[in-house]
TrEMBL record:
Database matches in InterPro entries: DUF4367, LolA/LolB/LppX, Sporulation_related
Organism domain of life: Bacteria
Extent of the signal sequence: 1-20
Gene3D superfamilies to which the protein is assigned, alphabetical: Lipoprotein localisation LolA/LolB/LppX
Annotated source species: Paenibacillus glycinis
Protein's UniProt keywords contain Phosphoprotein: no
Low complexity: bias regions: 222-249, 264-295
Record key words, sorted: Signal
Name assigned to this protein: DUF4367 domain-containing protein
Listed transmembrane segments: none
Residue span of region Disordered: 207-324
Sequence ranges assigned to domain DUF4367 in this UniProt record: 378-417
Pfam families from the UniProt entry: DUF4367
Amino acid sequence: MRRRFSFIAAILLCLTAVLAGCGTKDAESVVKDLDKTLSGLDSYTGKGTMTLFTGQQPLEYQVEVSYQKPSYYRIALTNAKKDITQIVLRNDEGVFVLTPRLNKVFRFQSDWPANQGQVYLYQTLVQSILLDNSRQFAVDNDAYVFDVMANYQNGSLARQKIWLNKSDYAPNKVEVSDANNAVMVSVKFDSFKFGSKLEKSVFDTQKNMGTPAAGGDQPTMADPDNGNANAANDNANAGSDNASASPDNGANANNPDYEATSGNSDDTNANADNPDKNAATNANNGGNDASNENAANEDSDGAMAPADHAEGTFTGMDPTYFPDGVSEVDNQNIVFGGNPGIMIRYSGTYDYTLIETQPKDVAVSAVKGELKDLGFTYGLLSGDEQKTLTWTYEGTEFRITSGNMPEPEMIKVAQSVQGEMSK
């Protein structure tokens, strides 16, 4: 009798082991499946919450991601408390960063996101698993968990854990950590769907700006290759009346890669139909924000003026990160592009200037530069010897300019700018 019970117990244990193993695969099988999934990927949509732990306080953003084969992308980052949304698009015309609230459009000639990993893009997550031969694998309830190397612009991000649904390999959660295993970025997906049917309008620039495709008060984008920098030298004096009317006047002779055009859409047509006016505006609007010594002394018709020309007040935000050996030199109120702002100069190991303004005018820009992921937003890195990193956050436009500051350090400073300025 005992033998019979022992035999039955052994069968039950075997059945339990088999049932427990159902639906569970080893790392090699999952990796092969992921490779097939990535190869056959046509489209997907996802929504979730991204939390950044890089500042003094955690920052939360709602993330919406859409992808359509072969290379259409739409990413919306929204700060719910501030009701601010920034959208990144890739379509047939190029790569765009949109800030609808400011009617601002940046266009890039870039192969993004192929050259830049994004923590909320499925392709980036799967590629990091496929490429890391030292990957670690575990099973957590209904998810497969991979611990792999992180490959992002922020060099302090060392590793990431990726939770994938057992059923369809959709992402559940991502945690990116630094070298000390402290979580710096997390993304929790509320929903993720493969094979989504997406209309072409999802990736349309004008539709995402909330403006009609033609006519009306819509953003106008100049061609960044239209040679404005050369024409600007011949028309510099003609555009002084327009120079202080626009908040995004970053183009100048010392920074030809930053060929931004901006102004009020009612009276400025920065396009190929009006190249002289466009060039003249570019020549005068930029001033020379790369120059620490002369920036505050520009005439009020240029990009920058002393604070006594300002109308209204402006409260800036204070960076909490300083590179070793760097200290603040001075802090002064200015007018930049016709808007009140502040300029802070730093010196030491690196010399750089931080300019902050709050644009009020309608501004549009088509620029040459590199798209940089700052985590909470996207920035533009432009220039050669003098580099400028420009970004927008909570309605404020920031720009860091330096001739000797490494790009990773510029990004760290940018990521630390938060909170009201203490003066």
